[in-house]
Amino acid sequence: MNIVIDTNILLVSIPAHSKYRPVLNAFSNRKYTLIITTAIYFEYIEILENLSAKGVAKYIEDALVLQEMFYRLKCIIIGI
After folding, report:
1. Full-prediction pTM beyond 0.85?
2. Helix axes 21-28, 56-73, angle to 10 degrees
3. CA of 19: how far to CAs of 10, 22, 24, 51, in Å?
4. Position 9 in a domain
5. pLDDT tens-digit series, residues 17-62
6. What's 35's DSSP letter?
7. Which of 59, 55, 27 lies closest to 35 in space, CA to CA?
8. Residue 80 domain-assigned?
9. Residue range of the domain that includes 41
C-alpha cells in the first residue's frame, strides 16, 4: 500500500506511548510504501530537527533514505 503522511502525524507518531505509534511501526516494518517528494522529505527533516529530541531527525532521515534505496532497487522510483 502506498501512503502519504502529514508532517504532524509523523511528529506525533514518534513517542513510544503515542496512540499514533503504529503508523511509524508499520513504516519500519515495511507494511506500506511512504510516497514523498523531495520538498516533503526536507520538510520532515526540518520539522523533526526543530521539534524532536536530539537524534530523532537523523533516525527518521536514515529510515527514509534506506526505504528509497530499497524501492529504487525494485524499480519503483519515489521522491521525484
Report:
1. no
2. 40
3. 12, 7, 11, 19
4. yes
5. 999 989 888 877 878 877 777 788 788 888 888 887 778 778 777 7
6. P
7. 27
8. no
9. 2-73
pLDDT at 70: 55
Q: Is residue 68 part of a domain?
A: yes
Number of domains in the chain: 1
Listed in sequence order, the residues at least 6 apart from 57 whose beta carbon sits closer than 8 Å to its beta carbon are: 45, 48, 49
Residue indicated by cell numbers 515495511: 30
Is 51 a domain residue? yes
CA distance 49 to 28: 20
∠ CA 70-78-64, nearest 5°, is: 55
pLDDT reading at 68 higher than 70: no
Residue 19: its pLDDT value, please? 94
| SS3 of residue 34 by DSSP | strand
Which grid coordinates are listed for 35? 510516497
Instruction: Supply angle C-alpha 9, 15, 21, rounded to 5.
Output: 55
